[in-house]
Design brief:
6 helices; eight-stranded mixed beta sheet; about 20% strand; alpha/beta; 8 strands; single chain
Length: about 200
C-alpha cells in the first residue's frame, strides 16, 4: 500500500456542448474523465477523455455529472442506474427554468438540487455551475466569469468536489447546504453575482 488516496474518476453524462465543455475542463485540470454517451449516439471524445455508455461511466466513476436540461431530465437519465450512485458524488448542474429561460418552475421555496437529492437518496448530492453560462467553459479561460457557487449537505463530498475544481482556471466558493439551492439557482435571472446560468 502506498498510502496515497485514489484519485476520483469524473464521469460526465451527455453529448451536448455542456457535457463536452465540462469533460474537457476537468481533463485539462489533470483528472481522469469519462464521457458517457448513448449507445446509438457515441460522440467523439475530447482530448484526454475516455468515452463509454452511460452504465459503464456511472459504474466506473466516483463523481457523476449528468449534463442534461432540467432536474427531471437528469432523473430520467439516471434512473436505470440509480442503485449504482449509492455513495458516489452526484453533481447537479441544472436550473428549474421555464421555457425561454424567463422564470422558474415551482415556488421560491423549492430548489432543483433538493429534488435530485430526493430522487437518489443514496448519492452524495453536490450542486455546482448553476450561476454561470456554460459557453464560458468552451474556450480560453475568461477572467470575467463569476465565482461558481457550490452547495451540498454532505461536507466531505463538497470538500472533495471543491478540491477537484481547484486546478481549473475558475474561482469556487462553498455556498452552504442544499437549502441554498433556490437562492443560487435564481442568481441567474436576478443577475446577482452571476453572468448567467449553465444550461444544456
Amino acid at each position: 500500500m502506498s498510502g496515497e488516496a485514489e484519485q476520483p474518476t469524473i464521469g460526465v453524462l451527455g453529448t451536448g456542448g455542456i457535457a463536452v465543455a465540462l469533460a474537457t475542463m476537468f481533463a485539462r485540470a489533470g483528472h481522469e474523465v469519462r464521457l458517457g454517451t448513448p449507445a446509438t449516439g457515441r460522440a467523439a471524445a475530447p482530448p484526454g477523455v475516455l468515452t463509454g455508455g452511460y452504465e459503464e461511466v456511472v459504474t466506473t466513476s466516483s463523481v457523476v455529472i449528468p449534463a442534461v436540461l432540467g432536474v427531471q431530465g437528469a432523473v430520467q437519465q439516471l434512473r436505470p442506474w440509480g442503485a449504482g450512485l449509492r455513495g458516489k458524488i452526484l453533481v447537479d448542474i441544472t436550473n428549474p427554468f421555464t421555457g425561454g429561460h424567463v422564470d422558474f418552475v415551482g415556488p421560491w421555496a423549492t430548489g432543483g438540487s433538493t429534488d435530485l437529492a430526493a430522487a437518489f437518496p443514496g448519492a452524495l448530492l453536490v450542486g455546482a455551475f448553476k450561476n454561470v453560462w456554460w459557453e464560458t467553459f468552451t474556450g480560453a479561460p475568461d477572467p470575467s466569469v463569476p465565482t461558481v457557487h457550490v452547495i451540498s449537505d454532505a461536507p466531505e463530498a463538497k470538500r472533495t468536489f471543491l478540491a477537484l475544481c481547484a486546478p481549473t482556471p475558475y474561482t469556487y466558493t462553498d455556498a452552504g447546504g442544499l437549502d441554498q439551492a433556490r437562492r443560487v439557482e435564481r442568481m441567474a435571472l436576478r443577475g446577482v453575482g452571476s453572468a448567467g446560468v449553465l444550461a444544456a
